[in-house]
Predict the 3D structure of the following.
Amino acid sequence: MMNDTPKHILKKQFEIINSIPLRERLLNLFELTELSRKIIENRIKEKNPEISEIDLKIELFRCFYKYDFDEAKMNKIIDSMREYYYRNKSVV
């Protein structure tokens, strides 16, 4: 990762961020997280407009956690997601 921001500027950025109340910082974090999720979701839908609800959730999961799980574990989680979805789909 490249970081060419001078240390005194980084320090000032952290001071500004830390001056914001924790509740507001958390709300901003949640808002940014939701925004990033929506952007990725829209990109997936653009590539595959006919994608099902569960496949969209799975692709989002893959995007967010592709570096956290090896292929075997990822597939096991995805199988569990599908199983849970289809088991509970008729309940809703």
User: Anything to note?
Assistant: DSSP finds four helices and no strands in the chain. Residues 22-47 form the longest helix (26 residues).
